[in-house]
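Support request from a user on the community tier.

User writes: "When I paste my structure tokens into the form, the page sometimes reloads and wipes my input. The last time it worked, I copied everything first. Here is what I submitted, just in case something in the input itself triggers the reload:"
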């Protein structure tokens, strides 16, 4: 039950964080209106998948302390979102600002998820 609550709380927090992040930093997207219910469900599912992965990794490395989980979040961010987004800048001509906005969102979300998971486990 605790694992389920950690994942659910983290997924909801990620959704709220992203909503606020893009409302503040991406006015064009915010002006477009509310996302459809399908997009909301998909985003909550994506967030739950990330939270579940963090829970699984925390259990695999045998820690539930917030400090080590924050370090895990930084490593995950550097290994995945940072690498993928910097590659999109280098090879697909994605504007640096766009990649930075998405990368920042991922960093904040991973730090929040890791903190919540550490507090629940």
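"...and here is what came back when it finally went through:"
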């Amino acid at each position: 039950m605790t694992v389920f609550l950690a994942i659910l709380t983290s997924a909801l927090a990620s959704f709220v964080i992203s909503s606020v992040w893009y409302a503040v930093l991406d006015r064009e997207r915010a002006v477009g209106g509310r996302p459809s219910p399908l997009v909301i469900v998909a985003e909550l599912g994506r967030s739950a998948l990330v939270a579940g992965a963090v829970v699984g990794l925390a259990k695999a490395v045998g820690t539930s302390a917030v400090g080590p989980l924050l370090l895990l979040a930084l490593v995950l961010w550097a290994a995945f979102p940072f690498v993928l987004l910097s590659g999109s800048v280098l090879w697909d001509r994605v504007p640096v600002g766009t990649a930075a906005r998405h990368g920042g969102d991922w960093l904040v979300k991973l730090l929040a998820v890791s903190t919540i998971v550490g507090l629940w486990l």
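Agent notes: The reload is a front-end session timeout and is unrelated to the input. The mean pLDDT is 92. Residues 2-120 form one domain. Escalated to web team.
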